[in-house]
């Protein structure tokens, strides 16, 4: 356990305004506690506090929310050379009999860290280009949802107009059509309804046009970053700017997952036993990073349609009595191994982190 290889453990429960910290011995006995503000002054105070109270140099910091409220603190502690691990939010079964408070959560973060296997430490995700890809993927999702809603709204308004507008609603809203709708003149002697409808059509056409341009720029940025980090990844069959970017974001950096089996568990593609009696089988894993699992699922579907090698594999496994779901589960596991090997071999994803105690 990690408790056998460290001199002290610090558990931190993070919040928007303040963080609660506890420093404990490897036995889990608390030594000191403190509350700091979520800013540079508070981070410097915490570093000095750890130096004053730590009984030795081997200090492990367990932070809840390393990519949320604790992202700034994680960066400062990592830059200071401390070994930082990511702590999951305590389950309600763990809280049973202890209640809920910031000091309790900080203590639970300490205990969770000390019980970890040193070969399975949850290292926080990397910053830099990986973080840029994560931001772009989030922006793409918002733009796509907004663009779809506004396009549907625009078509509905056009269907309520004259025959020309209804014809536009049935067709494709190209860039030229959107540009014309956003600049067309109001009819003569319009009613109040026509005035409102005309103004709303112009507004929606302008918004859809701008969102479409933003989506194209977003895709170009994602493609450029993925090509810089893992050259040739999007050239593999089934990989696009979205699926490749999601794979890089979830993988983060070399060393975060100790092997391809751990990466498969992260992706939710590792097989789970579902055997009983004479039935020996595996089932899909419904855990892990579901966004990454969705990306791998998309790659598998594309290859099942377009890849001759994959189609031959599907035919052979079907003849063996496998169902489509079982075959797809096997394909997703193979694709996960392929992604892991490709990303591990990329020098740009190598990250230097503080060594474990």
Automatic annotation (TrEMBL):
<dbReference type="InterPro" id="IPR003346">
    <property type="entry name" value="Transposase_20"/>
</dbReference>
<dbReference type="InterPro" id="IPR047650">
    <property type="entry name" value="Transpos_IS110"/>
</dbReference>
<dbReference type="Pfam" id="PF01548">
    <property type="entry name" value="DEDD_Tnp_IS110"/>
</dbReference>
<dbReference type="InterPro" id="IPR002525">
    <property type="entry name" value="Transp_IS110-like_N"/>
</dbReference>
<dbReference type="GO" id="GO:0004803">
    <property type="term" value="F:transposase activity"/>
</dbReference>
<dbReference type="Pfam" id="PF02371">
    <property type="entry name" value="Transposase_20"/>
</dbReference>
<feature type="domain" description="Transposase IS110-like N-terminal">
    <location>
        <begin position="10"/>
        <end position="159"/>
    </location>
</feature>
<feature type="domain" description="Transposase IS116/IS110/IS902 C-terminal">
    <location>
        <begin position="234"/>
        <end position="314"/>
    </location>
</feature>
<dbReference type="GO" id="GO:0003677">
    <property type="term" value="F:DNA binding"/>
</dbReference>
<dbReference type="GO" id="GO:0006313">
    <property type="term" value="P:DNA transposition"/>
</dbReference>
<protein>
    <submittedName>
        <fullName>Transposase</fullName>
    </submittedName>
</protein>
């Amino acid at each position: 356990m990690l408790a056998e290889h460290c001199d002290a453990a610090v558990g931190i429960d993070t919040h928007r305004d303040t963080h609660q910290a506890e420093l404990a011995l490897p036995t889990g006995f608390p030594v000191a506690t403190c509350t700091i503000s979520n800013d540079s002054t508070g981070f410097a105070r915490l570093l000095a506090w750890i130096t004053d109270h730590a009984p030795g140099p081997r200090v492990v910091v367990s932070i809840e929310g390393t990519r949320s409220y604790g992202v700034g603190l994680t960066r400062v502690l990592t830059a200071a050379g401390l070994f930082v691990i990511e702590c999951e939010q305590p389950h309600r079964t763990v809280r049973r009999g202890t209640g809920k408070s910031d000091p309790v959560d900080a203590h639970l973060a300490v205990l969770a860290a000390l019980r970890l296997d040193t070969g399975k430490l949850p290292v926080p995700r990397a910053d830099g280009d990986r973080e840029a890809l994560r931001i772009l993927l989030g922006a793409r999702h918002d733009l796509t949802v907004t663009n779809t809603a506004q396009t549907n709204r625009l078509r509905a308004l056009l269907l309520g107009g004259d025959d020309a507008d209804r014809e536009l609603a049935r067709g494709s809203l190209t860039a030229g059509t959107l540009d014309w709708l956003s600049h067309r003149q109001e009819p003569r002697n319009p009613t109040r309804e026509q005035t409102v409808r005309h103004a709303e059509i112009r507004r929606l056409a302008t918004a859809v046009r701008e969102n479409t341009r933003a989506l194209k720029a977003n895709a170009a940025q994602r493609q450029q970053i993925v090509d810089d980090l893992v050259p040739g990844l999007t050239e593999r069959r089934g990989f696009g700017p979205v699926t490749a970017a999601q794979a890089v974001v979830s993988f983060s950096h070399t060393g975060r997952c100790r092997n391809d089996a751990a990466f498969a568990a992260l992706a939710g593609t590792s097989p789970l036993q579902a055997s009983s009696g004479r039935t020996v089988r595996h089932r899909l894993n419904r855990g892990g990073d579901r966004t990454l699992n969705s990306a791998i699922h998309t790659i598998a579907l594309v290859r099942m349609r377009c890849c001759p090698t994959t189609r031959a594999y599907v035919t052979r496994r079907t003849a063996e009595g496998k169902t489509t779901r079982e075959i797809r589960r096997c394909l997703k596991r193979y694709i996960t191994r392929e992604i892991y090997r490709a990303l591990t071999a990329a020098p740009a994803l190598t990250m230097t982190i503080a060594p474990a105690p």
